[in-house]
Amino acid sequence: MLGWFQALMPREDRLFGLFRRHAMTLVAGAESLRVLLNGGEGAPEACAAIARHEDEADAITREVLLAVRRNFITPFDRSDVQDLVTSLDDAIDQMLKTAKTVTLFEVGRFEPRMREMADIIIHAARLTLEAVELLAAMRQNTARLNAIAEEIAQIEETADRLYDEGRKALFVEHRASDAMEFIVGVDIYSHLEKVMDRFEDVANQISGIVIENV
Q1: Which of the 8 DSSP states describes residue 114?
Q2: Is the sign of the CA dihedral 135, 141, 145, 146 positive or negative?
Q3: Cα–Cα distance, 46 to 99 (Å, whole number)
Q4: Whole-angstrom Cα distance, residue 46 to residue 58?
Q5: S-S: 9 plus which of 53, 73, 104, 150, CB 3.0-4.6 Å?
Q6: Angle at which helices 78-104 and 14-36 pack, to 10 degrees?
Q7: Rounded to an integer, what distance in angstroms lies between the CA atom of residue 38 and that of residue 115?
Q8: Contact 63, 22 (CB under 8 A)
Q9: Using one digit for the tens of pLDDT, what is the confidence trace for 146-167?
Q10: For residue 72, what pLDDT band results from cuts at 50, 70 and 90?
């Protein structure tokens, strides 16, 4: 009976467009993060760009949460809608924390593995955008959605390896000299790893939605 009633009610399909817009801010933020980790004269503008993308993502998140409160029927469970947009927002928030750390400690030189992690983050962001775009027709796209979730989990493992290797390299380089540079470098690595962790959270959230609705 409930399923028949829901079929007659208009769904808030506009939410899919909002999810897509949010995921696009993640791609833009990840690309700006990669520019930041090149260092040089472009770093300040890259930090500012990440902040702008984060502001845009916050506005979209508020719009989604408002839509959930105002509409009786949502495309899937309203708690899943809230959890998905929150996990998307956590990813861009963590990018901004990375940029703030770079600015706070006036970092101008970045390790090769940091840039490798940023490349992985861009890949994860683009996969996330693809997954979000497939959600509106998840029954037809179940196999691809599952494959995306698996790929994000795999590249998260690569990011973990780079995180460990990067910290070890910093220790070897600075153990007899500049302890502060080691500490700041580890902090940046930690933020980058958390960005990737947040993308894995998004993938897990999408996987859960697919399982519940297909």
Answers
A1: H
A2: positive
A3: 8
A4: 18
A5: 73
A6: 20
A7: 7
A8: no
A9: 999 999 999 999 999 999 999 9
A10: low
CB atoms within 10 A of CB 72: 10
* CA-to-CA dists, residue 122 to 33, 75, 76, angstroms: 9, 28, 28
Mean pLDDT of 56-78: 88
What pLDDT sits at residue 179? 87
Class of domain 12-213: mainly alpha
The C-alpha atoms of residue 177 and residue 11 are separated, in whole angstroms, by: 61
CA angle 98, 192, 205 (to 5 degrees): 110
Length of the chain: 214
Where are the chain's structural domains? 12-213
